[in-house]
Amino acid sequence: MKYRQLGKSGVKLSVIGIGSWLTYGMGIDDKTALKCISTAIEHGIIFVDTADIYNKGGAETSLGKILFDEMKVKREDIVLASKCFWPMSPNPNNQGLSRKHIVESVNASLKRLKADYIDLYQCHRHDPSVPMEEICRAFDDLIRQGKLLYWGVSVWSAENIDDAAAVCEKHNLHRPVSNQPQYSIIRPQIETDGVMATCEKHGMGEVVWSPIAQGLLSGKYSGGIIPKDSRAAHDGMGAFMRDSVTDEALLAKVDNFKKYAESLGHTSTQLALAWCLRKSNITSAITSASRPEQIIENCAAADIEFTREMEKRVKEIFA
């Protein structure tokens, strides 16, 4: 495993992270989740990402139980991240980025995770209804209280990030240190919409989600065939990828990509992760897995040196 500094902050993350969206506490039972997370820790993964909305607290609860009750992981040995924004109940204040919701969300996450503090807490989306100063001051207060060590954002525009940085600079508040965008070979928009450049300008690292497009770039859906044990076959876990697995043109490109990866001695999953990590500002690629062997495969991507020739060929394949 390799480790990178999160932007200009002092903390380091494993370049491969383990996430829990649609998996642990939801689509994957705790026994399997324990095997996967144990394998991740054994192979040097120290960055564990979750969010309060994942199965309405179920993912945080599952991770807290597995990490600290069953595995007895030392709190200082991992970097634990969570997020808030999405509605957790019909209560109108139990959503968004008001000071009230941020503070109450952090307290609830701490209980579910069985932790005294959270290393990185992120705004799961931007909330235009709340003044930016209120958002920034709420996170600054929580950091000063020791409940959080760092804060960040997720799926924010370049303009939103600029606004937050300006408010923090004006009032001498703790700045956001991370952005968590979607990023993969087939979703490279942060390279062109200003988000990646803006994060670099403000010293923020990227911790990207869906780097293998929820498994699509693994090549397992060749010809539009959906394996019974795949994410797409699961009613809950496959809800966000229905269109992709029926896109014949895209699947044909993925088939070519898989052949290219194999010609280099890698799997397409490994090459897709290495493609993300070719950018120095990508601190970690957050992966998920339903089997321990998938984690071992993912970790091997950390050792791939992505050359200019490889980048050129991948661009040709997905043109």
Brief characterization of the structure:
This protein has 319 residues and is of the alpha/beta class.
For the termini, the CA-CA separation is 31 Å
Principal-axis shape equals globular
Mean pLDDT: 93
Q: Tell me the total number of β-strands.
A: 10
How much helix, percentage-wise, in residues?
Answer: 25-40%
CATH class wording: Alpha Beta
Describe the main β-sheet briefly: 8 strands, parallel
Query: By helix and strand content, what is the structural category?
Result: alpha/beta
How does CATH name the architecture? Alpha-Beta Barrel
Order of helices and strands: EEEHEHEHEHEHEHEHHEHH
CATH fold description: TIM Barrel
The H-level CATH homologous superfamily, spelled out, is NADP-dependent oxidoreductase domain
Number of helices: 10
Integer tally of domains:
1
- Poorly predicted segments: none
Strand order of the largest sheet: 3-10-9-8-7-6-5-4
Radius of gyration: 19 Å
Strand content: 5-15%
Give a written overview of the molecule.
It is a single chain. This protein has 319 residues and is α/β, with parallel strands linked by helices. Helices cover 37% and strands 13% of the residues. The chain has one domain: NADP-dependent oxidoreductase domain (TIM Barrel). β8, α6 and β9 form a beta-alpha-beta unit. α1 packs across α2 and α4 packs across α5. The longest helix has 16 residues. It is globular. It starts with a strand and ends with a helix. 47% of the residues are buried. The model has no long low-confidence stretch (mean pLDDT 93).
